[in-house]
Amino acid sequence: MLYSDIASVFDRIEGTGSRLEMTSILSELFGTLDPASLRNVVYLSQGKLHPDFFPQKLGMSDKLVLKAISMTSGFSESTVEEMWVKEGDPGTVAEMLMGMKKQTALFSEPLTLDRVMKGLLSIESSDGKDSQERKMKLLANMLHDSGPTEARYLCRIVTGRMRVGAGSMTILDALASSYADKSDRPEIERAFNVTCDMGAVAETLAAGGMDAVRNVSVKVGSPIKVMLAERLPSLGEVMTKMDGRCGMEFKYDGIRVQAHISEAGVRLYSRRLEDLTSNFPDVASSLRAALKGKEAIVEGECVSVDLRDGRMLPFQEVTHRRRKHGMENAVKDYPVKIFLFDILHTDGRDTTLLPYPERREILSSAFRDSENIVMSNMNVISSPEEADIFFADALAAGCEGIMAKSLSPESVYRAGSRGFLWIKYKKDYRSDLIDTYDLAVIGAFYGMGKRKGRYGALLMAAYDQEMQSYTTICKLGTGFDDAFLDSMPELLDRHKKAERPANVDSKMVPDVWFDPYVILEVTGAELSLSPIHTTASGVFKEDTGLGIRFPRFTGKVRDDKGPEEATSASEVMDIYGMQTK
Length: 581
Ligand code: AMP
Known about the structure:
This protein is α+β, with helices and mostly antiparallel strands. The longest helix is centred in the middle third of the chain and has 17 residues, at about 200-215.
Protein backbone atom coordinates (compact mmCIF):
# COMPACT_ATOMS: atom_id res chain seq x y z
CA MET A 1 0.00 0.00 0.00
CA LEU A 2 1.41 3.37 -0.97
CA TYR A 3 1.51 5.97 1.77
CA SER A 4 0.41 8.59 -0.78
CA ASP A 5 -2.98 6.83 -1.07
CA ILE A 6 -3.44 7.07 2.68
CA ALA A 7 -2.27 10.69 2.83
CA SER A 8 -4.73 11.65 0.13
CA VAL A 9 -7.55 10.07 2.17
CA PHE A 10 -6.44 12.10 5.23
CA ASP A 11 -6.49 15.17 3.01
CA ARG A 12 -10.05 14.48 1.83
CA ILE A 13 -11.20 13.92 5.41
CA GLU A 14 -9.61 17.14 6.57
CA GLY A 15 -11.38 18.99 3.80
CA THR A 16 -14.88 17.95 4.79
CA GLY A 17 -16.86 18.93 7.84
CA SER A 18 -19.47 16.25 7.23
CA ARG A 19 -19.29 13.18 9.44
CA LEU A 20 -21.19 11.11 6.89
CA GLU A 21 -18.73 11.96 4.17
CA MET A 22 -15.75 11.24 6.45
CA THR A 23 -17.26 7.84 7.25
CA SER A 24 -17.72 6.95 3.62
CA ILE A 25 -14.19 8.11 2.64
CA LEU A 26 -12.65 6.10 5.49
CA SER A 27 -14.75 3.02 4.93
CA GLU A 28 -13.74 2.96 1.26
CA LEU A 29 -10.08 2.90 2.34
CA PHE A 30 -10.56 0.45 5.23
CA GLY A 31 -12.20 -2.10 2.91
CA THR A 32 -9.06 -2.32 0.76
CA LEU A 33 -6.60 -3.05 3.59
CA ASP A 34 -5.36 -6.33 5.07
CA PRO A 35 -5.97 -6.64 8.85
CA ALA A 36 -2.44 -5.64 9.95
CA SER A 37 -2.31 -2.61 7.63
CA LEU A 38 -5.78 -1.60 8.77
CA ARG A 39 -4.56 -1.57 12.37
CA ASN A 40 -1.68 0.73 11.42
CA VAL A 41 -3.82 3.09 9.34
CA VAL A 42 -6.26 3.42 12.24
CA TYR A 43 -3.40 4.43 14.56
CA LEU A 44 -1.90 6.81 11.99
CA SER A 45 -5.23 8.54 11.39
CA GLN A 46 -5.05 9.53 15.08
CA GLY A 47 -1.39 10.55 14.73
CA LYS A 48 -0.21 7.51 16.70
CA LEU A 49 1.72 4.30 16.28
CA HIS A 50 0.10 2.49 19.21
CA PRO A 51 -3.14 2.54 21.20
CA ASP A 52 -3.93 5.69 23.17
CA PHE A 53 -2.78 4.31 26.51
CA PHE A 54 0.69 3.38 25.22
CA PRO A 55 3.19 6.08 26.13
CA GLN A 56 3.59 7.97 22.86
CA LYS A 57 7.27 8.81 22.49
CA LEU A 58 7.33 9.87 18.89
CA GLY A 59 7.34 13.61 19.59
CA MET A 60 10.31 15.11 17.72
CA SER A 61 11.37 18.60 18.67
CA ASP A 62 10.27 21.35 16.30
CA LYS A 63 13.90 22.28 15.70
CA LEU A 64 14.79 18.81 14.47
CA VAL A 65 11.83 18.67 12.09
CA LEU A 66 12.74 22.12 10.81
CA LYS A 67 16.25 20.81 10.03
CA ALA A 68 14.88 17.76 8.22
CA ILE A 69 12.58 19.93 6.08
CA SER A 70 15.47 22.25 5.26
CA MET A 71 17.77 19.36 4.40
CA THR A 72 15.31 17.71 2.01
CA SER A 73 13.89 20.83 0.40
CA GLY A 74 17.18 22.67 -0.04
CA PHE A 75 15.72 25.82 1.55
CA SER A 76 17.75 27.36 4.39
CA GLU A 77 16.77 26.72 8.00
CA SER A 78 15.98 30.41 8.47
CA THR A 79 13.57 30.38 5.49
CA VAL A 80 11.84 27.29 6.86
CA GLU A 81 11.65 28.87 10.32
CA GLU A 82 10.18 32.10 8.95
CA MET A 83 7.46 30.19 7.09
CA TRP A 84 6.80 28.06 10.16
CA VAL A 85 6.24 31.14 12.33
CA LYS A 86 3.87 32.55 9.71
CA GLU A 87 1.92 29.35 9.08
CA GLY A 88 2.04 28.07 12.66
CA ASP A 89 2.20 24.48 11.46
CA PRO A 90 5.16 22.38 10.27
CA GLY A 91 2.87 20.26 8.07
CA THR A 92 1.81 23.19 5.94
CA VAL A 93 5.41 24.39 5.60
CA ALA A 94 6.65 20.92 4.61
CA GLU A 95 3.83 20.66 2.08
CA MET A 96 4.64 24.03 0.52
CA LEU A 97 8.36 23.39 0.32
CA MET A 98 8.17 19.81 -0.94
CA GLY A 99 6.13 21.18 -3.80
CA MET A 100 9.04 23.40 -4.84
CA LYS A 101 12.02 21.29 -3.82
CA LYS A 102 15.29 22.91 -4.87
CA GLN A 103 16.99 19.54 -4.92
CA THR A 104 15.56 17.01 -7.31
CA ALA A 105 15.83 13.44 -6.16
CA LEU A 106 18.16 11.27 -8.18
CA PHE A 107 17.20 8.05 -6.51
CA SER A 108 13.75 7.57 -5.22
CA GLU A 109 12.14 4.58 -3.55
CA PRO A 110 8.35 4.42 -3.20
CA LEU A 111 7.07 5.43 0.21
CA THR A 112 4.87 2.53 1.27
CA LEU A 113 2.78 2.23 4.44
CA ASP A 114 5.24 -0.40 5.70
CA ARG A 115 8.18 1.88 5.12
CA VAL A 116 6.47 4.76 6.93
CA MET A 117 5.58 2.56 9.92
CA LYS A 118 9.13 1.21 10.12
CA GLY A 119 10.59 4.71 9.77
CA LEU A 120 8.35 6.16 12.47
CA LEU A 121 8.97 3.25 14.84
CA SER A 122 12.74 3.71 14.35
CA ILE A 123 12.38 7.42 15.11
CA GLU A 124 10.49 6.51 18.25
CA SER A 125 12.99 3.94 19.45
CA SER A 126 16.17 5.94 18.70
CA ASP A 127 17.80 6.97 21.90
CA GLY A 128 21.22 7.49 23.39
CA LYS A 129 24.18 9.15 21.73
CA ASP A 130 23.54 10.78 18.34
CA SER A 131 19.86 9.87 18.54
CA GLN A 132 18.77 13.39 17.55
CA GLU A 133 20.84 13.28 14.39
CA ARG A 134 19.52 9.77 13.63
CA LYS A 135 15.87 10.84 14.11
CA MET A 136 16.39 13.81 11.84
CA LYS A 137 17.94 11.66 9.11
CA LEU A 138 15.18 9.05 9.36
CA LEU A 139 12.57 11.75 8.82
CA ALA A 140 14.59 13.39 6.03
CA ASN A 141 14.88 10.01 4.35
CA MET A 142 11.08 9.67 4.25
CA LEU A 143 10.56 13.30 3.23
CA HIS A 144 13.00 12.73 0.38
CA ASP A 145 10.52 10.37 -1.26
CA SER A 146 7.40 12.31 -0.23
CA GLY A 147 5.10 14.42 -2.30
CA PRO A 148 3.58 17.54 -0.70
CA THR A 149 0.56 15.85 0.94
CA GLU A 150 2.58 12.95 2.33
CA ALA A 151 5.09 15.43 3.79
CA ARG A 152 2.30 17.41 5.45
CA TYR A 153 1.06 14.42 7.43
CA LEU A 154 4.52 13.02 8.22
CA CYS A 155 5.56 16.31 9.83
CA ARG A 156 2.30 16.57 11.74
CA ILE A 157 2.60 13.02 13.04
CA VAL A 158 6.19 13.37 14.27
CA THR A 159 5.45 16.65 16.05
CA GLY A 160 2.22 15.40 17.68
CA ARG A 161 0.02 17.74 15.62
CA MET A 162 -1.95 15.19 13.63
CA ARG A 163 -5.67 15.78 13.92
CA VAL A 164 -7.48 15.19 10.67
CA GLY A 165 -10.87 15.61 12.30
CA ALA A 166 -12.20 12.04 12.21
CA GLY A 167 -12.99 11.21 15.84
CA SER A 168 -13.19 7.72 17.29
CA MET A 169 -16.95 7.50 16.67
CA THR A 170 -16.44 8.14 12.94
CA ILE A 171 -13.76 5.47 12.78
CA LEU A 172 -16.15 3.00 14.45
CA ASP A 173 -18.87 3.92 11.94
CA ALA A 174 -16.44 3.36 9.08
CA LEU A 175 -15.31 -0.02 10.47
CA ALA A 176 -18.91 -1.17 10.84
CA SER A 177 -19.69 -0.07 7.32
CA SER A 178 -16.64 -1.85 5.79
CA TYR A 179 -16.68 -5.12 7.72
CA ALA A 180 -20.07 -5.61 9.42
CA ASP A 181 -23.68 -4.44 9.54
CA LYS A 182 -24.91 -1.19 10.93
CA SER A 183 -26.65 -3.19 13.67
CA ASP A 184 -23.24 -4.52 14.82
CA ARG A 185 -21.99 -1.00 15.54
CA PRO A 186 -22.80 -1.08 19.34
CA GLU A 187 -20.85 -4.32 19.78
CA ILE A 188 -17.84 -2.93 17.95
CA GLU A 189 -18.03 0.14 20.19
CA ARG A 190 -18.24 -2.07 23.29
CA ALA A 191 -15.04 -3.89 22.22
CA PHE A 192 -13.35 -0.51 21.88
CA ASN A 193 -14.65 0.71 25.23
CA VAL A 194 -13.30 -2.28 27.13
CA THR A 195 -9.87 -2.26 25.43
CA CYS A 196 -9.28 1.37 24.43
CA ASP A 197 -7.42 0.01 21.42
CA MET A 198 -9.13 0.98 18.17
CA GLY A 199 -6.33 -0.52 16.04
CA ALA A 200 -6.65 -3.93 17.72
CA VAL A 201 -10.45 -3.86 17.40
CA ALA A 202 -10.12 -3.02 13.70
CA GLU A 203 -7.64 -5.85 13.13
CA THR A 204 -9.81 -8.31 15.10
CA LEU A 205 -12.87 -7.34 13.06
CA ALA A 206 -11.10 -7.55 9.70
CA ALA A 207 -9.48 -10.88 10.55
CA GLY A 208 -12.19 -12.68 12.54
CA GLY A 209 -15.43 -10.85 11.86
CA MET A 210 -18.10 -10.09 14.46
CA ASP A 211 -17.64 -13.43 16.29
CA ALA A 212 -14.12 -12.40 17.20
CA VAL A 213 -15.30 -8.92 18.21
CA ARG A 214 -17.93 -10.37 20.55
CA ASN A 215 -15.21 -12.33 22.33
CA VAL A 216 -13.16 -9.25 23.16
CA SER A 217 -13.15 -8.80 26.95
CA VAL A 218 -11.57 -6.80 29.74
CA LYS A 219 -7.84 -7.51 30.17
CA VAL A 220 -5.47 -6.55 32.97
CA GLY A 221 -3.02 -4.02 31.51
CA SER A 222 -5.42 -2.69 28.88
CA PRO A 223 -7.32 0.30 30.28
CA ILE A 224 -11.10 0.40 30.08
CA LYS A 225 -13.07 3.50 29.18
CA VAL A 226 -14.52 4.85 32.37
CA MET A 227 -18.21 4.87 33.26
CA LEU A 228 -19.64 8.34 33.85
CA ALA A 229 -22.56 9.81 35.73
CA GLU A 230 -25.57 11.89 34.67
CA ARG A 231 -26.68 14.80 36.84
CA LEU A 232 -29.98 15.99 38.29
CA PRO A 233 -30.79 19.32 39.98
CA SER A 234 -32.11 18.04 43.32
CA LEU A 235 -31.73 15.09 45.65
CA GLY A 236 -35.50 14.57 45.45
CA GLU A 237 -35.24 14.03 41.69
CA VAL A 238 -32.22 11.77 42.17
CA MET A 239 -34.24 9.55 44.53
CA THR A 240 -37.27 9.49 42.19
CA LYS A 241 -35.08 8.53 39.23
CA MET A 242 -33.59 5.73 41.36
CA ASP A 243 -37.12 4.44 42.20
CA GLY A 244 -36.76 5.48 45.84
CA ARG A 245 -33.68 3.40 46.69
CA CYS A 246 -30.02 3.51 45.73
CA GLY A 247 -26.46 3.06 46.91
CA MET A 248 -25.11 6.49 47.76
CA GLU A 249 -21.39 7.21 47.91
CA PHE A 250 -19.33 10.24 48.84
CA LYS A 251 -18.11 12.03 45.71
CA TYR A 252 -14.42 12.61 46.36
CA ASP A 253 -12.70 15.58 44.73
CA GLY A 254 -9.43 14.18 43.50
CA ILE A 255 -7.93 12.36 40.53
CA ARG A 256 -9.65 9.26 39.19
CA VAL A 257 -7.35 6.31 38.81
CA GLN A 258 -7.94 2.94 37.19
CA ALA A 259 -5.49 0.47 38.71
CA HIS A 260 -4.41 -2.66 36.82
CA ILE A 261 -2.82 -4.96 39.37
CA SER A 262 -1.06 -8.11 38.20
CA GLU A 263 1.64 -10.36 39.60
CA ALA A 264 4.15 -8.51 37.44
CA GLY A 265 3.26 -5.14 38.95
CA VAL A 266 0.74 -2.32 38.92
CA ARG A 267 -0.14 0.28 36.28
CA LEU A 268 -2.32 3.25 37.10
CA TYR A 269 -4.24 5.06 34.36
CA SER A 270 -6.04 8.38 34.35
CA ARG A 271 -9.47 8.70 32.77
CA ARG A 272 -7.62 10.11 29.78
CA LEU A 273 -5.61 6.87 29.63
CA GLU A 274 -2.35 8.47 30.68
CA ASP A 275 -0.05 6.30 32.71
CA LEU A 276 -0.02 7.79 36.22
CA THR A 277 2.01 5.03 37.88
CA SER A 278 5.03 7.25 38.46
CA ASN A 279 2.78 9.97 39.95
CA PHE A 280 1.35 7.67 42.60
CA PRO A 281 4.07 5.06 43.29
CA ASP A 282 2.92 4.85 46.92
CA VAL A 283 -0.64 4.00 45.87
CA ALA A 284 0.62 1.43 43.33
CA SER A 285 2.75 -0.43 45.85
CA SER A 286 0.06 -0.38 48.56
CA LEU A 287 -2.50 -1.78 46.11
CA ARG A 288 -0.14 -4.60 45.15
CA ALA A 289 0.66 -5.40 48.76
CA ALA A 290 -2.93 -5.29 49.98
CA LEU A 291 -4.64 -7.23 47.15
CA LYS A 292 -5.51 -10.69 48.41
CA GLY A 293 -5.76 -12.28 44.96
CA LYS A 294 -3.32 -12.39 42.05
CA GLU A 295 -4.80 -9.75 39.77
CA ALA A 296 -7.53 -7.15 39.63
CA ILE A 297 -8.69 -3.96 37.96
CA VAL A 298 -10.13 -1.44 40.40
CA GLU A 299 -11.14 2.21 40.26
CA GLY A 300 -10.83 4.88 42.87
CA GLU A 301 -10.22 8.55 43.50
CA CYS A 302 -6.81 9.70 44.78
CA VAL A 303 -7.26 12.52 47.27
CA SER A 304 -4.69 14.53 49.24
CA VAL A 305 -4.95 14.11 52.98
CA ASP A 306 -3.57 15.89 56.01
CA LEU A 307 -1.40 13.32 57.78
CA ARG A 308 -1.99 14.88 61.21
CA ASP A 309 -5.72 14.24 61.30
CA GLY A 310 -6.50 12.31 58.10
CA ARG A 311 -8.66 15.21 56.82
CA MET A 312 -9.25 15.38 53.06
CA LEU A 313 -7.66 18.39 51.39
CA PRO A 314 -8.92 20.42 48.40
CA PHE A 315 -8.35 19.23 44.82
CA GLN A 316 -5.54 21.77 44.24
CA GLU A 317 -3.31 19.77 46.63
CA VAL A 318 -3.46 16.51 44.71
CA THR A 319 -2.59 18.28 41.45
CA HIS A 320 0.98 18.61 42.79
CA ARG A 321 1.19 14.90 42.03
CA ARG A 322 0.60 15.56 38.32
CA ARG A 323 3.91 17.32 37.85
CA LYS A 324 6.51 15.79 35.56
CA HIS A 325 9.62 16.35 37.69
CA GLY A 326 10.55 16.12 41.35
CA MET A 327 8.06 13.35 42.02
CA GLU A 328 10.05 12.02 44.98
CA ASN A 329 9.47 15.23 46.91
CA ALA A 330 5.86 15.52 45.80
CA VAL A 331 5.16 12.00 47.10
CA LYS A 332 6.58 13.03 50.49
CA ASP A 333 5.02 16.49 50.61
CA TYR A 334 1.55 15.59 49.32
CA PRO A 335 0.42 12.30 50.84
CA VAL A 336 -2.71 10.77 49.31
CA LYS A 337 -5.27 8.08 49.95
CA ILE A 338 -7.17 6.17 47.29
CA PHE A 339 -10.91 5.79 47.87
CA LEU A 340 -11.92 2.68 45.91
CA PHE A 341 -15.36 2.62 44.34
CA ASP A 342 -15.44 -0.14 41.71
CA ILE A 343 -13.92 -3.43 40.57
CA LEU A 344 -13.89 -4.45 36.90
CA HIS A 345 -11.87 -7.63 36.95
CA THR A 346 -10.65 -10.11 39.52
CA ASP A 347 -8.47 -13.18 39.06
CA GLY A 348 -9.42 -14.00 35.48
CA ARG A 349 -13.05 -12.91 35.85
CA ASP A 350 -14.55 -9.94 34.01
CA THR A 351 -16.85 -8.31 36.60
CA THR A 352 -18.10 -5.43 34.44
CA LEU A 353 -21.35 -7.23 33.64
CA LEU A 354 -22.22 -7.94 37.30
CA PRO A 355 -24.70 -5.60 39.02
CA TYR A 356 -23.24 -2.86 41.22
CA PRO A 357 -24.15 -4.47 44.61
CA GLU A 358 -22.26 -7.64 43.64
CA ARG A 359 -19.25 -5.67 42.40
CA ARG A 360 -19.24 -3.66 45.60
CA GLU A 361 -19.21 -6.83 47.69
CA ILE A 362 -16.33 -8.31 45.71
CA LEU A 363 -14.45 -5.01 46.02
CA SER A 364 -14.91 -4.80 49.81
CA SER A 365 -13.37 -8.21 50.39
CA ALA A 366 -10.59 -7.92 47.79
CA PHE A 367 -8.03 -6.03 49.90
CA ARG A 368 -6.38 -6.43 53.28
CA ASP A 369 -6.46 -3.40 55.59
CA SER A 370 -4.07 -0.72 54.43
CA GLU A 371 -3.40 2.80 55.63
CA ASN A 372 -3.83 4.55 52.29
CA ILE A 373 -6.43 2.30 50.64
CA VAL A 374 -9.97 3.01 51.76
CA MET A 375 -13.37 1.89 50.46
CA SER A 376 -15.48 4.85 49.34
CA ASN A 377 -18.09 5.64 51.95
CA MET A 378 -21.39 4.03 50.85
CA ASN A 379 -24.86 3.74 52.39
CA VAL A 380 -28.05 2.28 51.00
CA ILE A 381 -30.45 5.24 50.97
CA SER A 382 -34.22 4.86 50.84
CA SER A 383 -35.67 8.35 51.27
CA PRO A 384 -34.96 11.98 50.30
CA GLU A 385 -34.47 12.77 54.02
CA GLU A 386 -31.75 10.12 54.36
CA ALA A 387 -30.23 11.46 51.15
CA ASP A 388 -30.11 15.00 52.63
CA ILE A 389 -28.29 13.75 55.73
CA PHE A 390 -25.80 11.70 53.68
CA PHE A 391 -25.13 14.69 51.41
CA ALA A 392 -24.48 16.94 54.45
CA ASP A 393 -22.08 14.29 55.84
CA ALA A 394 -20.25 14.19 52.50
CA LEU A 395 -19.75 17.98 52.48
CA ALA A 396 -18.66 17.96 56.14
CA ALA A 397 -16.02 15.35 55.27
CA GLY A 398 -14.62 17.66 52.54
CA CYS A 399 -16.24 15.97 49.53
CA GLU A 400 -17.84 17.85 46.64
CA GLY A 401 -21.13 15.95 46.75
CA ILE A 402 -22.54 12.47 46.32
CA MET A 403 -22.80 9.78 43.65
CA ALA A 404 -26.08 7.88 43.65
CA LYS A 405 -25.71 4.41 42.14
CA SER A 406 -28.45 2.11 40.92
CA LEU A 407 -28.87 -1.17 42.82
CA SER A 408 -30.96 -2.77 40.06
CA PRO A 409 -30.03 -6.07 38.37
CA GLU A 410 -29.15 -4.02 35.25
CA SER A 411 -26.60 -1.91 37.11
CA VAL A 412 -23.59 -3.19 35.14
CA TYR A 413 -20.38 -1.19 34.63
CA ARG A 414 -21.08 0.60 31.34
CA ALA A 415 -17.59 1.26 29.98
CA GLY A 416 -17.34 4.59 28.17
CA SER A 417 -20.90 5.68 28.75
CA ARG A 418 -22.69 8.35 30.71
CA GLY A 419 -26.08 7.30 32.00
CA PHE A 420 -28.56 7.36 34.87
CA LEU A 421 -27.17 4.20 36.53
CA TRP A 422 -24.92 6.70 38.29
CA ILE A 423 -26.18 10.19 39.15
CA LYS A 424 -23.98 12.92 40.56
CA TYR A 425 -25.18 15.70 42.77
CA LYS A 426 -22.72 18.40 43.83
CA LYS A 427 -22.74 21.30 46.20
CA ASP A 428 -22.42 23.71 43.23
CA TYR A 429 -26.00 22.78 42.30
CA ARG A 430 -27.19 24.50 45.48
CA SER A 431 -25.92 27.92 44.47
CA ASP A 432 -27.10 29.84 41.45
CA LEU A 433 -24.50 28.33 39.20
CA ILE A 434 -25.48 24.87 38.17
CA ASP A 435 -22.16 23.17 37.62
CA THR A 436 -18.72 23.61 36.26
CA TYR A 437 -18.11 23.05 32.58
CA ASP A 438 -15.01 21.42 31.11
CA LEU A 439 -14.47 23.30 27.87
CA ALA A 440 -12.02 23.01 24.99
CA VAL A 441 -9.92 26.03 24.05
CA ILE A 442 -10.40 26.58 20.31
CA GLY A 443 -9.16 30.14 19.89
CA ALA A 444 -7.53 33.15 21.52
CA PHE A 445 -7.87 36.92 21.27
CA TYR A 446 -4.82 39.12 21.77
CA GLY A 447 -4.94 41.15 24.97
CA MET A 448 -5.22 44.88 25.34
CA GLY A 449 -4.16 47.29 28.10
CA LYS A 450 -2.46 45.35 30.87
CA ARG A 451 -2.64 42.16 28.84
CA LYS A 452 -1.03 43.65 25.71
CA GLY A 453 1.43 41.22 24.13
CA ARG A 454 -0.29 38.20 25.66
CA TYR A 455 -3.49 36.29 25.03
CA GLY A 456 -6.24 38.26 26.75
CA ALA A 457 -9.25 36.01 26.24
CA LEU A 458 -10.00 32.52 24.98
CA LEU A 459 -12.77 31.15 22.81
CA MET A 460 -14.23 28.09 24.53
CA ALA A 461 -16.24 25.20 23.14
CA ALA A 462 -18.39 22.28 24.21
CA TYR A 463 -18.28 18.99 22.28
CA ASP A 464 -21.24 18.02 20.15
CA GLN A 465 -20.99 14.22 20.18
CA GLU A 466 -23.57 13.71 17.49
CA MET A 467 -21.97 16.08 15.00
CA GLN A 468 -18.46 15.34 16.29
CA SER A 469 -17.75 19.04 16.31
CA TYR A 470 -16.71 21.62 18.86
CA THR A 471 -19.28 24.36 19.29
CA THR A 472 -18.57 27.72 20.95
CA ILE A 473 -20.19 28.57 24.26
CA CYS A 474 -18.29 31.54 25.71
CA LYS A 475 -15.43 33.96 25.40
CA LEU A 476 -13.40 33.54 28.57
CA GLY A 477 -11.35 36.42 29.96
CA THR A 478 -11.87 36.21 33.72
CA GLY A 479 -10.17 34.11 36.38
CA PHE A 480 -6.68 34.21 34.82
CA ASP A 481 -3.86 35.11 37.21
CA ASP A 482 -0.50 36.39 35.96
CA ALA A 483 1.12 32.97 36.16
CA PHE A 484 -1.62 31.47 34.00
CA LEU A 485 -1.46 34.33 31.48
CA ASP A 486 2.29 33.73 31.19
CA SER A 487 1.86 30.00 30.76
CA MET A 488 -0.76 30.26 27.99
CA PRO A 489 1.62 30.19 24.99
CA GLU A 490 3.37 27.08 26.29
CA LEU A 491 0.06 25.39 26.97
CA LEU A 492 -1.67 26.37 23.73
CA ASP A 493 0.69 27.34 20.92
CA ARG A 494 1.56 23.85 19.82
CA HIS A 495 -2.11 23.41 18.88
CA LYS A 496 -2.20 26.55 16.71
CA LYS A 497 -3.87 26.27 13.32
CA ALA A 498 -3.65 28.72 10.42
CA GLU A 499 -7.39 28.36 9.80
CA ARG A 500 -10.49 27.25 11.65
CA PRO A 501 -10.11 23.48 12.26
CA ALA A 502 -12.66 21.47 10.27
CA ASN A 503 -14.22 20.05 13.45
CA VAL A 504 -14.88 23.49 14.96
CA ASP A 505 -18.21 25.22 14.46
CA SER A 506 -17.90 28.92 15.28
CA LYS A 507 -19.45 32.19 14.23
CA MET A 508 -16.80 34.17 16.13
CA VAL A 509 -13.38 34.55 14.56
CA PRO A 510 -10.54 34.71 17.12
CA ASP A 511 -7.06 36.11 16.40
CA VAL A 512 -5.58 32.63 16.70
CA TRP A 513 -7.24 29.24 16.14
CA PHE A 514 -6.34 26.11 18.07
CA ASP A 515 -7.08 22.47 17.51
CA PRO A 516 -9.37 21.47 20.37
CA TYR A 517 -7.01 19.84 22.83
CA VAL A 518 -6.61 21.81 26.05
CA ILE A 519 -9.53 21.58 28.48
CA LEU A 520 -10.20 24.23 31.14
CA GLU A 521 -12.77 24.16 33.92
CA VAL A 522 -15.15 27.10 33.75
CA THR A 523 -17.98 28.29 35.99
CA GLY A 524 -20.62 30.80 35.09
CA ALA A 525 -23.74 32.54 36.26
CA GLU A 526 -26.21 30.79 33.99
CA LEU A 527 -26.83 29.75 30.42
CA SER A 528 -28.65 32.10 28.12
CA LEU A 529 -29.76 32.11 24.50
CA SER A 530 -27.03 33.60 22.36
CA PRO A 531 -27.01 34.52 18.69
CA ILE A 532 -23.19 34.39 18.52
CA HIS A 533 -22.58 30.95 20.00
CA THR A 534 -23.11 27.67 18.19
CA THR A 535 -23.74 25.20 21.05
CA ALA A 536 -27.25 23.72 20.70
CA SER A 537 -27.80 26.05 17.78
CA GLY A 538 -31.40 26.05 16.60
CA VAL A 539 -32.54 23.72 19.41
CA PHE A 540 -34.27 26.29 21.60
CA LYS A 541 -34.55 29.09 19.03
CA GLU A 542 -33.83 29.38 15.34
CA ASP A 543 -30.27 30.54 14.50
CA THR A 544 -29.53 30.91 18.20
CA GLY A 545 -27.29 28.86 20.45
CA LEU A 546 -26.54 28.79 24.17
CA GLY A 547 -23.84 30.82 25.90
CA ILE A 548 -22.50 30.92 29.47
CA ARG A 549 -23.05 34.29 31.13
CA PHE A 550 -20.13 35.74 33.14
CA PRO A 551 -17.80 32.79 32.55
CA ARG A 552 -14.82 32.47 34.88
CA PHE A 553 -11.81 30.11 34.82
CA THR A 554 -11.68 28.12 38.07
CA GLY A 555 -7.89 27.62 37.85
CA LYS A 556 -8.21 23.93 36.94
CA VAL A 557 -6.58 22.82 33.70
CA ARG A 558 -8.30 19.47 33.16
CA ASP A 559 -5.30 17.60 31.81
CA ASP A 560 -6.98 14.38 32.89
CA LYS A 561 -9.62 14.87 30.19
CA GLY A 562 -9.29 14.44 26.43
CA PRO A 563 -11.05 16.88 24.07
CA GLU A 564 -13.87 14.45 23.36
CA GLU A 565 -14.54 14.41 27.11
CA ALA A 566 -15.32 18.12 27.18
CA THR A 567 -18.80 18.94 28.46
CA SER A 568 -21.11 17.79 25.70
CA ALA A 569 -23.70 19.85 23.88
CA SER A 570 -26.39 17.52 25.18
CA GLU A 571 -25.24 18.07 28.80
CA VAL A 572 -25.43 21.82 28.14
CA MET A 573 -28.97 21.39 26.83
CA ASP A 574 -29.91 19.39 29.96
CA ILE A 575 -28.48 22.11 32.20
CA TYR A 576 -30.41 24.77 30.28
CA GLY A 577 -33.52 22.60 30.59
CA MET A 578 -33.07 22.34 34.39
CA GLN A 579 -32.48 26.06 34.66
CA THR A 580 -35.64 27.00 32.80
CA LYS A 581 -37.85 24.46 34.59
P1 AMP B 1 -17.51 14.67 37.07
O1 AMP B 1 -16.00 14.72 36.83
O2 AMP B 1 -18.04 15.88 37.76
O3 AMP B 1 -18.27 14.25 35.84
O4 AMP B 1 -17.79 13.51 38.13
C1 AMP B 1 -17.43 12.18 37.89
C2 AMP B 1 -16.15 11.87 38.62
O5 AMP B 1 -16.34 11.83 40.04
C3 AMP B 1 -15.62 10.49 38.35
O6 AMP B 1 -14.95 10.44 37.11
C4 AMP B 1 -14.68 10.25 39.51
O7 AMP B 1 -13.41 10.81 39.21
C5 AMP B 1 -15.26 11.10 40.61
N1 AMP B 1 -15.74 10.34 41.79
C6 AMP B 1 -15.52 10.74 43.07
N2 AMP B 1 -16.09 9.89 43.92
C7 AMP B 1 -16.69 8.91 43.20
C8 AMP B 1 -17.45 7.74 43.54
N3 AMP B 1 -17.70 7.43 44.79
N4 AMP B 1 -17.91 6.98 42.51
C9 AMP B 1 -17.65 7.30 41.22
N5 AMP B 1 -16.93 8.39 40.86
C10 AMP B 1 -16.46 9.20 41.82
